[in-house]
Amino acid sequence: MEKRELMIPMRDGVKLYTEIYLPDGTGPWPVLLVRTIYSIQIANQMFHYNKVTENGYIIIVQNGRGFFCSEGEFNDPTCEAEDGYDTLDWISKQEWCDGNIAMEGSSYNGYAAFAAASLRHPNLKTLIGDYVATVFSGLGFYDKGISALSHFSWGASQTQKEIVLDGNSTEIKKYILVDRDMRKCMMKTIAPNFDSKSDEGKKILCEYKELSLKAVNSLKDVYDIGLYQAVKQMKDVSPWTEPWFVEIDNPDYFKSCDFTVAENTPNIPTIQVTGWYDHFVKNAFKLFNANKENGVYHRIVVTPNDHTSMVGHSLLPIGEQFIPNEFTNDSVFSVRIPKSEGQDRTLNWLDYWLKDIPSDIENRAPITLFVQGENKYRDEFEWPLARTVWTPYYINSSGDAGKLLNDGKLTLEKNYKESADTDKYT
Predict the structure, then answer these.
(1) pTM here?
(2) Are 128 and 33 in contact (CB under 8 A)?
(3) Average pLDDT over every residue of 357-380
(4) How many CB atoms sit inside 10 A of residue 276's CB?
């Protein structure tokens, strides 16, 4: 395997840092591209490049503009579409590329892949996306008028600015420093040689838990100052997040970031893994139905996981408390997937769509989902299920549903006799 490091130029002259891993021998070869705003060191820990190159693929990892060694300034997530397209175009013209390219990404990296795919470069043949934000306005930071503050914290933690505490330090800055410590510890839990059962592994997990709780408490301090003040503080550290709040009443602003609308759907074969407790699961089904309507093959696998337990060790007992032996890790990207998918899920998918190696992929049910209660996976063919029985539930309480020890409940009967909840906002 040969490694190359270079700067790839975009249409506006900005150059993006890129690492290329080529197989031994002579090409050309098909290519797997990953674009990320996170440290490439994270990718180097999570991805098994040799697994890709040994199977006759080039793997390319690129930092987005404004992050780490890439030039430019990150002003808006919409830049991912053109930057991704330009990168695909550059790759397609290299002598070592056989003209067949796939993109992969999890979480925001998945958004970057789907953004590039929305411009439909002819050499991009398939997508692999796990726990993906396929509708960035859902990530950004409202859903039907509700502010998603958990995602707000994500925007703060992506700042590239140096943060130094002083007498005038804001709640946002304090949170960012705690979050960085927590993420450094998390990296230890996803290292290939990490052993959660060893004494050292247990010590790391204990530290990770303590830092995570510290981050939660620090984030609570941010929430307590109120959304208006928090947005002002965010503008200081991550100014690119401001439009998420300013443009809330402008549906056209986020339209280009919604890959479920007809003009933006990638229109190429796609496989996604998501989880019932992942905040992007709803949008995964929206894209599934959009591709289905366009006659494009789309496979979706729904686990009992949340977003944080896609890799490494979740601090929440989701999924594994019921089915501790049902997960395996993708042999390329380390994403946790059902054992029924097989460790070589990514390689098998690439072989079928990029190398035309025969497979039963398109003969499988397009949906595999975890059934809670029965605690097993089941194949389905549409969503919502044709046999769904829609049941209305009603929100009720005696007035304390908004408190920590609340009495809120869902009922099958309407009940308007109880008191309405009240809260104070600053």
Answers:
(1) 0.84
(2) no
(3) 90
(4) 16
